[in-house]
Structures are given as structure tokens and as C-alpha cells.
Design brief:
With 295 residues, the chain is of the alpha/beta class. It is built from 12 helices and 9 strands. Strand 8, helix 10 and strand 9 form a beta-alpha-beta unit. It holds the Pfam family DUF72.
Length: 295
Amino acid sequence: MKFGKVEQPELVDFSFPKTHKDTERVLSSLDKNEELSVFVGCAKWNKADLKGFYPRGTKDELIYYSSQFNSIELNATFYRQFPPEQFEKWKNKTPEGFKFFPKLTQDISHWKRLQGVADLVNYYLDAATRLEEKLGTIFLQLHANFGPKNFDRLQNFVEGWPTEIPLTVECRHTDWFTDVSVASEFYELLEKNGVSNTIVDTAGRRDMMHMRLTNNEAFIRYVGANHSSDYGRLDDWVIRLSEWVNLGLRNIHFFVHQNLEVESPLLAAYFINKLNATLGTNLKIPNEELQQSLF
């Protein structure tokens, strides 16, 4: 994942912004007795990217991946529409409790830019819902040049989205976050419609660490820099998520990326181990016998 990549990550200030005041308001209104749900995964499962993750002789990468992780941020669906049968195959290959968090296709988000996309969305949802109980939050990522001048398009899309299917939105144009009035209107739109506001932690776009949750979901896309600071940043996320859980957050969806994806499973294993110790979760540590040196 090259978005937000910088040549010298050691020069970046990775310190966390304070929790947004409206995040505290949203979380404080939630039911703290609800069971905590935590899903951590990578963006891809193919062997070409996750070099060294799969044991020699692995025949089916998804079957093995889903034996180690409880979720996947499904980026493959961004590049083309998959037929319903493909989603059914993915569902049947994975164990009980596994979830997919698929990205909407670029036809919808980038080429048509949310305009005149009803048929495309309906086809996508008919296919993706074949995952049934294994379908997690669907993920809309907008182009970096999709700015607030397109607010009406985003509003129509969000308001027309079926409420029974969870949705998260990632805006990349800086004005969604740096213009106070725009940000307020954007956050209000998501909160009013029960849509999650994606947080992106990447070196070159610290404005996307807005720390503004709009519902009972922290959907976080963490992009490591293949640098020693990657692990300290994950430590900071464990602290912040623990604070949010104490306020009332009950749904954590955290996906690990890398500019060189080979290290993503290592970072994810480290993060899961820290989460288990801090939050009392019992997530499987991927390839635990190979990760001991990290802990």
C-alpha cells in the first residue's frame, strides 16, 4: 500500500492526536454491557505479497490464512466485480467466526464517483451478501481528489445505503478533515446514518488520524513504514483502543498494511499479542511459534 508513503519515516511525528471530543460523546452513549468484538487482519492473503507467512506446500492460501486470522480486509473487490458464486466459495473455505470486510469496487467510488451507481451497488451487494454471517463492514474508499464539492454525492450515497449492512467511509481529500465546517458536516452525516468513519494511520497523511468515531465501530487501516517505529505506533494504538473500550466502544476492526506487505503478518501478530494482554481478548496469534522473538 503506497498511499501515504514517505522516504524518511524517521522524520515523521507519529504522536497521536487527542481523542475527538465528539468521539467521547458518541462512545459514552453506548451500552457498556455489550460484548467486545475484535477483528484483526491483513489486506491480502496471496502468497506473492505475504512471503514467508505460508508453510511450504500450502495449497490453498485462504484456507491457511483463515486458520491464523479471524478477518481480512478484502481489497481484491476494489479492482473488479466478483460474481455471487465467488463470495460463496470464499465463505465456504473459511471457519466459523471468520469475517470479510470487502472494499467497494472502483467503478463505484473512482470512475463513476458515486453518481448513477445504483445498478452497480445492487449487483455488488447481491454478491457480497452471499457471505451471510461472515460479511463484516463494507468499505467505501474515495479518490484523493474527491473533495467536499462532491458532498451531495456522498450524502445521497450514504443516505441511500441499506441500514442493515454496515458501511465505513474513507475520504482522502485533505479538506474533509482540515476545514472545520466541512469536517463537522461530514461527521454529522456519518453519525446520523450510523456509518463508520475510517481512520487511516499512515506516515504521509497524519490529517487522517482524525480520531473521530461516528458510531460503535473503530475501523482502522494501519500502514506500517517498514521502519522500527512501526511497533511503537502499534503500542500507541493498543493504549488508545483500551481508552475507547473503557468509554464504551465495542467493535474494533483493525487491518495491517505495509509498503512491503511481507511484514504485515509480523506486525499483526505483535499487535494481537498486545491486545490480548491489555483488553483480555483471546485472539489467535498468527504463526505464534514463529513470532516469539517479537514478544
